[in-house]
Amino acid sequence: MKDISLSLTTPSAGSPFQKAGAALTSCGILCCIIATFGFGNNYPFTFFFLIIGLFIAGGLLYSIPYFTAKNGLKNDGIMQNSLSSKGAIAWGIAILMTGFYIILYWFPSYLEGLIRTMNPLSLLLRGKSADQWFLYGTFYTLAVLIMSIRFIGKYKFSRYQVIRTISVMFFQLGFAFLLPAFLLKLNQPEFYFSYFWPLKYSYFFPNDFDYLIKSGNLGVFMVFWGLVMTFIATPILTYNFGKRWYCSWVCGCGALAETLGDPYRQNSDKSLKAWKIERWIVHSVLAFVILTTAMLWLNSWKSGTIFGNASGLLSQWYGFLIGSVFSGVIGTGFYPIMGSRVWCRFGCPMAAILGLIQRFKSKFRITTNGGQCISCGNCSTYCEMGIDVRAYAQKGENIIRASCVGCGVCSSVCPRGVLKLENLEEESRFIPYIRHENK
Q1: What pLDDT digit, counting tens, does each position of 29-62 carry?
Q2: What domains can you pick out in the chain, each with its CATH number?
Q3: Cβ-based neighbours of 93, under 8 Å, separated by 6 or more
Q4: Three-state DSSP string of 93-138
Q5: Higher pLDDT, 387 or 13
Q6: 243 phi and psi, to 5 degrees?
Q7: Which helix (H) or strand (E) holds 367?
Q8: 63 vs 107, 164, 336, 365, CA distance in Å?
Q9: Cβ distance 388 to 380 under 8 Å?
């Protein structure tokens, strides 16, 4: 049994620190709105420091009570809170986030003033003025870093949660934000080393492939890195560690879901109907990107004589429907309503590939000790992937599911130590009650 206190104590939402944090964050959002209406063009430095400073200060203040609170679940009242239980506040946040994504993707001119506030940082890191994607990358990274502090405070009693959260902070800040910016400053291709095909689908499209090859030795290395990570490293790592090595330790999409989306993880649909829809959609997206990539290469090989413009149109539709609408607008904007892993669960082609390997050829599983289960339901409630973990625990069955991202929160919130993440011999993965100390 875990040697931690699991009393349902939580930082009060009305604590002075959290009130101050919420107020500062609201002021940061207000500054963003003011900057959007032209003031960011005239006072970029002022608004940059105001926005970034207020968001950081607000996030840190809001997180302080989690570090000072007693170890435990810290989730009492979450189903009655309007912010976390699909209430009016949650719907308001969903509309705000969805609206921001729509404007960012298709009407960036309306954000010109806000984009200019990022010029000081963009000029420092990239040597060029900010654009809509640098604005997005900055806010995205800031959200991951700030909410990671909160997450670490909340799960400070779990070494696994602390280490993996530090890992996603490192990869998001270093590999997905600073390194691509530094490459641009050196007049090299903007390349994201922590994203691979089919998640970063365009890297294996002929035009991007040729561009990287022609950009010099570094571009050739980028292509080599992408090929190795996609076709060699990914299968090997997933066989040994399951999809958690990527989805919960490296991927920026997972990083945002685990940190910014943590207050909404309990909103994931656990029904059988949702599971059937999930399987059909996520594997359809995978088939879509495989077909698109194959058609583009065949067309390129035959100089466009096979499919004509069809392959190009297919890639454009994939970019619009999946790369923009699904992964951005729906995948993130719907956090407060559908849970934190909307994109990862229903749309990510990378998650689909990793899931197939994990389900049929991997050492990873979550072992259960059914004799200790008290059917409290915490594990199922806080599974962001919609898995009914309790049903497995009650039957003493190991959890081997393609959708499981190995976040380990189900294990962390279990008051009896029933669940354990393990990498054992593949042949024994369906045998219950095998408990080792590797987690």
Answers
A1: 999 999 999 899 999 999 999 999 999 999 999 9
A2: 1-74+107-186 (no CATH), 362-428 (3.30.70.20)
A3: 83, 335, 336
A4: HHHHHHHHHHHHHHCHHHHHHHHHCCHHHHHHHHCCCCCHHHHHHH
A5: 387
A6: -75, -5
A7: strand 364-368
A8: 34, 18, 19, 32
A9: yes
